[in-house]
């Protein structure tokens, strides 16, 4: 066994070691069938049991009410930028989008192809690190209000659920789903690309309230049609079976860890460990307002940016991978999703402290 390596990639992100080990053990012989799970017919009894168990486990983890459908779809989170608009703008082609960063802006670009979008600033006015706004001039006749609870690029996260009254709230939870408890009943739709807290890239999970399944545009492609997919148990076409299987293993791992309440406490502790170090350092800084900081994606900058490349090279040699920040923000970014153990965050803090002492 080599040295311990911690992958801080924003996505595709690390999976739990236990999940990878189980998947490896089952890769060529699933349940004694002498074939891989990825070779099973998605309509056969053996795979249908895998799919059904994954849905049951996700429903249990998130306490999803019975009047919501759970869909396992293709296209990742970006595919849902278009799918949400196509499924909700059929009878009322206007929506409000609260924008706080790169991913909510990208969602706007897709929705504008379908209907009329009002873009609302997600921040309070002001200079310097900005607080998230808590209220907006929402259109009470809009088909829905969309927001991104956690922006991976900028490291910005809501610590509250926006109040949209009777207008359905739609959330892109790609980078925060399953990281802590959430009241699903406050949302019309929750969607998430899998490659951060659920499983491999390409899969998307959609949780949609039943009363919203008759709002689709007539030209919505069948593969994006939530009602059609719900009727077919997400198997209108051949789904990404191996990704769905791996997601199911992650759900089981989460249950073994005590569920989302237990993992939420761990995630909070990880974030507090790294933020606390950065805040007390005169070598590093975080430029996000303290009230809007993400638990999942923690950007930080070296005050002497000429040391960036040296930092990244030495971090990689120390087994700390994928710390380069997004090109829009620069600096560094540590993504600490559910699969990242607190030991990985401690190893990063120890390295950062050592690097600062050697380069101050």
From TrEMBL:
PANTHER family tied to this protein: PHOSPHOSERINE AMINOTRANSFERASE (PTHR43247:SF1)
Enzyme Commission identifier(s): 2.6.1.52
Subunit-level organization: Homodimer.
Record has Cytoplasm as a keyword: yes
Family: Belongs to the class-V pyridoxal-phosphate-dependent aminotransferase family. SerC subfamily.
Keyword Mitochondrion in record: no
Source species: Oceanimonas doudoroffii
Binding annotation for L-glutamate: 43
Protein's cellular compartments: Cytoplasm
Cited InterPro entries: Aminotrans_V_dom, Aminotrans_V_PyrdxlP_BS, Pser_aminoTfrase, PyrdxlP-dep_Trfase, PyrdxlP-dep_Trfase_major, PyrdxlP-dep_Trfase_small
GO cellular component, one term: cytoplasm
Occurrences of domain Aminotransferase class V (ranges): 5-348
Annotated protein name in UniProt: Phosphoserine aminotransferase
Pfam families linked to this entry: Aminotran_5 (PF00266)
SUPFAM superfamilies the UniProt entry points to: PLP-dependent transferases
Enzyme class: transferase
Record's keyword terms, sorted: Amino-acid biosynthesis, Aminotransferase, Cytoplasm, Pyridoxal phosphate, Pyridoxine biosynthesis, Serine biosynthesis, Transferase
Record CDD domains: PSAT_like (cd00611)
Main function: Catalyzes the reversible conversion of 3-phosphohydroxypyruvate to phosphoserine and of 3-hydroxy-2-oxo-4-phosphonooxybutanoate to phosphohydroxythreonine.
Listed GO biological process terms: L-serine biosynthetic process; pyridoxine biosynthetic process
Gene this protein is translated from: serC
Pathway: Amino-acid biosynthesis; L-serine biosynthesis; L-serine from 3-phospho-D-glycerate: step 2/3; Cofactor biosynthesis; pyridoxine 5'-phosphate biosynthesis; pyridoxine 5'-phosphate from D-erythrose 4-phosphate: step 3/5
Any one GO molecular function term: O-phospho-L-serine:2-oxoglutarate aminotransferase activity
């Amino acid at each position: 066994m080599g040295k311990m390596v911690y992958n801080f990639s924003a996505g595709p992100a690390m999976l739990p070691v236990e999940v990878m080990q189980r998947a490896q053990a089952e890769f060529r012989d699933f349940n004694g069938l002498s074939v891989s799970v990825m070779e099973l017919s998605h309509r056969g009894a053996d795979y249908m049991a895998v799919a059904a168990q994954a849905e049951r486990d996700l429903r249990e983890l998130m306490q999803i009410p019975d009047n919501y459908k759970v869909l396992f779809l293709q296209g990742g989170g970006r595919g849902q930028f278009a799918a949400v608009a196509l499924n909700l703008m059929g009878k009322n082609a206007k929506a409000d989008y609260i924008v706080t960063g790169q991913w909510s802006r990208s969602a706007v670009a897709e929705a504008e192809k379908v209907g009329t979008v009002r873009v609302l600033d997600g921040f309070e006015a002001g200079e310097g690190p900005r607080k998230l706004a808590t209220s907006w001039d929402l259109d009470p006749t809009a088909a829905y209000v969309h927001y991104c609870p956690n922006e991976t690029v900028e490291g910005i996260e809501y610590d509250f659920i926006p109040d949209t009254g009777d207008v359905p709230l739609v959330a892109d939870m790609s980078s925060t789903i399953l990281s802590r408890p959430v009241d699903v009943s406050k949302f019309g739709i929750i969607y998430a690309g899998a490659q951060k807290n659920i499983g491999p890239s390409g899969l998307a999970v959609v949780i949609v309230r039943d009363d919203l399944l008759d709002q689709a545009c007539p030209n919505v492609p069948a593969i994006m049609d939530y009602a059609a997919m719900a009727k077919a148990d997400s198997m209108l076409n051949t789904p990404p079976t191996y990704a769905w299987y791996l997601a199911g293993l992650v759900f089981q791992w989460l249950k073994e860890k005590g569920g989302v309440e237990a993992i939420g406490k761990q995630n909070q502790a990880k974030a507090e460990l790294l933020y606390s170090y950065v805040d007390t350092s005169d070598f590093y800084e975080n430029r996000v307002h303290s009230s809007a900081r993400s638990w999942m994606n923690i950007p930080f900058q070296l005050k002497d940016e000429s040391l960036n490349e040296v930092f990244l090279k030495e971090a990689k040699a120390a087994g700390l991978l994928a710390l380069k920040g997004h090109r829009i923000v620069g600096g560094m970014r540590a993504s600490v999703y559910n699969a990242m153990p607190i030991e990985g965050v401690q190893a990063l803090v120890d390295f950062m402290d050592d690097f600062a002492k050697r380069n101050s």
